[in-house]
């Protein structure tokens, strides 16, 4: 049995500090700091006239804060299950002079988003909590509808591979990363959490679903072992 939404909320309520470091990002994922930088820099080049950003599963606000370094006047909508995460994200954004347009606490499956409003939507390390493909379709359609024409969606997350043997190889690479980072016990701890909490999808499915809901262009920004970053343009 996978963790429930309530269990996931209370877990993240107690993990705010771990998701509030802009220099390192979320270190239990491979290439975290690199992808933070890469997404923020690519947004600056692809959405130079952006006004509104929405960060789904914002955690401590790292992605929004990194984007704000290039766009200090952007207004942000921050969304999370955890009120503790939202409070920290809001505090960090406002302390750098940023504006929080909306703060939404809830499950992205249930929340209503503004239509045709955002120039940028980010979902980093959150959609692996979706439990089936119908939920993916519903959430990606919601994200598509929330964007203005030409707006961009940025995805970064744990993924799985279509081919089980490839998945095994990439799991081993991820395990090696975790062991080198904090030792075998930590590696086991992370994999135990993945087992009970996460239901990652394949890159191939996500790309085809993004195209299905209407995105005109979809690209892979980065991929390393079990993590991938994807960008989609409306
Ligand atoms: C692994 S953290 C990532 C935080 C941030 N995006 C980052 O990359 O630093 C996942 C966040 O998503 C939130 N979350 C999990 N499931 C969610 C859901 N169904 N709807 C909204 N937020 C969710 C958690 O509370 C947590 O803050």
UniProtKB/TrEMBL annotation:
Pfam families: Methyltransf_12
Alphabetical keyword list: Methyltransferase, Transferase
Domain Methyltransferase type: 55-153
Stored SUPFAM superfamilies: S-adenosyl-L-methionine-dependent methyltransferases
An example Gene Ontology molecular-function term: methyltransferase activity
Record carries keyword Methyltransferase: yes
UniProt KW Transferase keyword: yes
Stretches that traverse the bilayer: none
Superkingdom, taxonomy of origin: Bacteria
GO biological process entries: methylation
PANTHER family found in the cross-reference section: TRANS-ACONITATE 2-METHYLTRANSFERASE, TRANS-ACONITATE 2-METHYLTRANSFERASE-RELATED
Protein's name according to its UniProt entry: tRNA (Cmo5U34)-methyltransferase
Taxonomic source organism: Orenia metallireducens
Lineage of source species: Bacteria, Bacillati, Bacillota, Clostridia, Halanaerobiales
């Amino acid at each position: 049995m996978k963790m429930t939404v309530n269990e996931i909320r209370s877990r993240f309520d107690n993990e705010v500090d771990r998701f509030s470091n802009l220099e390192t990002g979320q270190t239990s994922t491979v290439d975290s700091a690199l992808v933070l930088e890469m997404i923020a820099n690519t947004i600056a080049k692809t959405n130079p006239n952006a006004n509104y950003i929405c960060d789904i599963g914002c955690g401590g606000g790292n992605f929004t804060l990194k984007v704000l370094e290039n766009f200090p006047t952007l207004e942000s909508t921050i969304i999370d299950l955890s009120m503790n995460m939202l409070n920290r994200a809001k505090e960090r954004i406002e302390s750098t002079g940023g504006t929080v347009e909306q703060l939404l606490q809830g499950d992205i499956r249930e929340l209503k988003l503004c239509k045709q409003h955002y120039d940028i939507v980010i979902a980093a390390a959150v959609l692996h909590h979706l439990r089936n493909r119908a939920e993916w379709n519903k959430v990606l359609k919601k994200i598509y509808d929330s964007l203005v024409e030409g707006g961009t969606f940025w995805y970064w997350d744990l993924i799985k591979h279509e081919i089980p043997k490839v998945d095994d190889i990439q799991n081993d690479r991820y395990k090696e990363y975790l062991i080198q980072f904090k030792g075998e016990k930590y590696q086991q701890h992370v994999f135990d959490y993945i087992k009970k909490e996460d239901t990652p999808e394949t890159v191939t499915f996500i790309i085809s679903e993004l195209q299905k809901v209407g995105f005109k262009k979809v690209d892979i920004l980065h991929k390393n072992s079990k993590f991938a970053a994807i960008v989609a343009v409306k």
